[in-house]
Amino acid sequence: MAMSRGLFFTFEGIDGCGKSTQACLLYKRLTSRRGEDSVVWTREPGGWDGGEKIRELLLERGTSHAMSELFLFMADRCEHASRVINPALDAGKTVLCERYTDSTIAYQSWGGGIPLSRIEEMFNWCSFPVPDLTFFIDIGPEAALERVVRRGRPDFLEKKGASFLERVREGFVFLSEREPERIVRLDGGLGIESLAGEIGDKAEVLLHR
Ligand code: TYD
After folding, report:
1. Ligand 1: which of 15, 119, 164, 168 to mutate, most ligand atoms within 8 Å of CB?
2. Domain total for the chain?
3. Residue located nearest, by CA, to atom 20 of ligand 1
4. What does the pLDDT look like over 105-148, one tens digit per residue?
5. Does 76 sit in the ligand 1 pocket, CB within 6 Å?
């Protein structure tokens, strides 16, 4: 029997929304039942061998041209998809990815002003795999900035401040309203445990289908 392709889950939201915590909790929940080998937990930018260089370029050094920033995120995703995401899905594994295409639309279009149609055309050129389900953890920019500052060392994107993050958040809201089947909008103000419960239950529904 041919192996069925694995499920692809992504986590999205503005900086400090709690994506990593939730991805970690879902990873633990899924691997406790199915074993470590059945789930791949990754992130963008930089989730592939060598990708740390692009991540550093984007987040620590920064870029001066909006299109070079976009191209770097796209190049990172092309390599990530072909080296990590697609092979894992082809092997029937579940993939959990922190940030993906919705981040590019929210940050580079809503935040950075690049037209949505241009970004989506690039997605088509690259044939990126589409997530089966995306968890958008929605928090306000003030709460986000507070968390980011508490964590220390905000990176250059985070230094753009509350009005930038509010625009980015509006981008995620737009996407979740345009694609309600794929994108689940979750109230990031809920406690960690209740959020994890909701996310885990939704993931299990797809896994058992
Ligand atoms: P992130 O992975 O969120 O790290 P942390 O949560 O530890 O701060 O940081 C990645 C940053 O890159 C974040 O500010 C969002 C941004 N980003 C884009 O602007 N476009 C993209 O396509 C992606 C994947 C990320």
Report:
1. 15
2. 1
3. 104
4. 999 999 999 999 999 999 999 999 999 999 999 999 988 888 88
5. no
Q: From start to end of the chain, where are the E strands?
A: 8-12, 39-43, 94-98, 133-138, 183-187
**20 in a structural domain:** yes
Ligand 1, atom 2, residue with closest C-alpha? 44
pTM, two decimal places: 0.95
Beta-strand pair 94-98/8-12: parallel
Q: Are 43 and 65 in contact (CB under 8 A)?
A: no
Q: Is the dihedral of CA 85, 105, 107, 179 positive or negative?
A: negative
Please indicate, yes or no, if residue 48 is contained in any of the structural domains: yes
pLDDT band at residue 53 under the 50/70/90 scheme: very high
Residue 159's pLDDT band (cuts 50, 70, 90): low
Distance 205 CA to ligand 1 centre (A): 28
Residue 95's CATH number: 3.40.50.300
- Residue 143: which domain range? 8-207
104 CB under 6 A from ligand 1? Answer: yes
Distance 44 CA to ligand 1 centre (A): 7
The Å distance, Cα 100 to ligand 1 centre, comes to 9
Is 2 inside any structural domain? no
DSSP state of 59: I
Asked if residue 175 is part of any domain, the answer here is: yes
